From TrEMBL:
Keyword Metal-binding: no
MF-aspect GO terms: ATP binding; kinase activity
Organism: Paenibacillus oceani
Pyruvate phosphate dikinase AMP/ATP-binding domain sequence ranges: 288-666
Protein's name in the database: Pyruvate kinase
Amino acid sequence: MDIRDKASTGMTGFDQAIDKLRLGDNIVWQVDSVSDYRKMVEPYVRQSKLDNRKLVYVRFGGHEPVLEADPAIAVYPVDAEKGFESFATAVHSLIEQEGRKAFYVFDCLTDLLQYWHSDLMIGNFFKVSCPFLYELDTIAYFAIVRNVHTYSTIASIRETTQLLLDLYRVGDNYYIHPLKVWNRYSPTMFFPHRIRGQEAECITASAESAELFSSIQRGGERLDYWDVLFHKAREELSQPPERQEAAKRMLMAMLIGHESRMFELCDRYFTLEDILAIASRGVGTGFIGGKSVGMLIARKILEREGGERFAPYMEPHDSYYLGADVYYTYIVQNGWWKLRTKQKTKEGYFRYAPELKEKLLCGKFPENIQEKFVQLLEYFGQSPIIVRSSSLLEDNFGNAFAGKYDSVFCANQGTPEERYEAFEQAIRTVYASTMNEDALQYRLNRGLFEQDEQMAILVQRVSGDHYNDLFFPHLAGVGNSTNLYVWDKSMDMDAGMLRLVFGLGTRAVDRTVGDYAKIVSLDNPQRKPLSLAEDYRKYSQHYVDVIALKQNTLSTKRLEDVLPYDLKVDKALFASPDYETALRLSELGYTGYKTPDILDFDSLLTGTGFPGLMKELLALLSGVYDYPVDIEFTANFTKDRRFKVNVLQCRPLQTRGLGKSVHIPELTDGDDSFFSSKGNFMGGNVRLPIDYVVYVHPQAYLDRSVQGKYEVARHIGYVNAILKHRYAMLIGPGRWGTTTPSLGVPVHFSELCHMSVIVETSSVEAGFMPELSYGSHFFQDLVESGIFYAALFDGQPDVAYDPQRVLRLDNALSELSPQSATLSDVIHIARTAGMELFSDIVTQKLLCR
């Protein structure tokens, strides 16, 4: 080896013992104190300065500095309190910046425990940083305090580092005992060495070695620091309240996050015992994520504030929580951290996401985590479960991430091995969804690009029961404490609303093909939206999402195939005979048929206490949050019409609020309006200028092939980006954001997110129909982004619509988006300076002129 590839420890005798340091070496000292570590750092730094090495000190510990201020040493303070990902990324960046052959001193790694509370994550940090330092031919000094970390952490460090050295101080003497020295060997290298000045005396005599090691206290196997803290906190349960509160807040910082509005809410309602109960159902370390926190705090509020009003009606939960550190460990231990670091850059944000997503779908979990997964599945037995995303920013004030990450149902049938593999793959699927384009765009649009989005997971038992070979709840849906979609001026919007479906709630949160959830205004549950008055059967639910136990999968069944099952309750609660359809069939000459059913939930809404309970439940949660809330729930009924509600999720409903009442100008015969309507809009009271109208021709769109329809959607995305800072209205046939091109334009939300207004129009001839999907993920995106929504049912009373108002104006498509010029027959962009949109909630008037 070239002499230039070697460097000195600053101690001549020890250099001889280990044949010096080599470029690329990471050196880890196991010490009893930071002051002992400093004794080894000093000669190394002194010699490095004499050799004109580039010296870098990475400062993050709470201990006294390892190095004194020195103009010859570059000091990088790195904030470990921001979490593993932020810290590891910052260290990676500074290593990259300093480049090749820099010499490093790091603070004591054990100090990271006070910020991360996890031995596992210290091992993960070393595992991602050490290879990068080696790759750049650096030399780096690290330290860990002896008898603090778990054997598995030490094993992870030993496996990764080039040198692992025990440093002992006995009396006035220091002893170095090399445990690993990579890629070199001598007959005495792994004996202890007594350090005296520049000399290193090798202790080979058995008697002297035995005397030395017998005088050193050695600890046995230790729990992860995470578990140590929770064990200590449990002891505080017998202490005075102020001691318990201090312990509770410390544990909350580990499980829930740092000071925030949600943290304060949890602090008000959770006790130390509550937090310990949550931790007892945890897998791995780290935050449990926003979805888990939202569900837990909502249940606690109902328990504490609701008293006996809600207790008899609440279905218990027995969820498990996979900590966010499991996600990081999965990435690190599968060797993908470097790719993850590249993806986190501005240049690689979208570029490397597909590759990382593909890898996330096929990794291996650490053995200790696999064992926890087995225990979790043994607990649930063969009950169906759902594996849900619960990222750190999810379901929080300001950002809901509604529908951006995946949730996966596990039917949980088959052999233990089959059930385990399906569960693992469900977790991989949720992890991979962090790289979904919609999720990445959502983060980018909200300025969250550089924030850690730690992915924890919530594992819930699916609510419901067996019905023949199917499993599902009687009822599921979404509830909002404030009803922004009001279609009648007599409605009390503060009474809230529900979006109900029969079966699993997937059909309540997604825009489904040819199906409609039941919209219930809780001030008068029997009130029906005007837009549905003409054909209640057409705009009702026709399919049911269930778990098919024999097929071991999530499945969609026709309503008429499920209703005949023994539902263990009177099905009249949910469905009524559709006599109008029966009459029409009779008139057409059909005989021998059974009168079909229609899911109207009329009996449930008029003959049970369910709507009243939900109205009070939403009002209570909203009152405590001091903010409108959005919940997901299920309900199951008994033959005597009693029921249990399971609150699965609760989050702040992101909305701009009502604003002041808006005066709607009166139209005269000569006025040239674009459209006017009564009701069927969301977004509060507004008066908005409209600079551009982006109009999609219904017939021209319909005439295109399926591939051509998707092409239109992509070009709407280009236009959306171009009009980012303008007041633009997007108007087109059917449903924006549908996954079925025959029902509307299949844009991703990120392709219309910069619009000020979106309008869905009906076209009976072309078969396009808006869907008033209040409560869906699509709706959540609209209100979070402050986008005004309107549906125009052309031909209905109180609706006036004149597309020629904008079509008479020149088409600016080719000018604004030259690559879209070939679509000018489908997309028309009109400059509409002076156009304004007016809406008023109280009168339900909508006008654009």
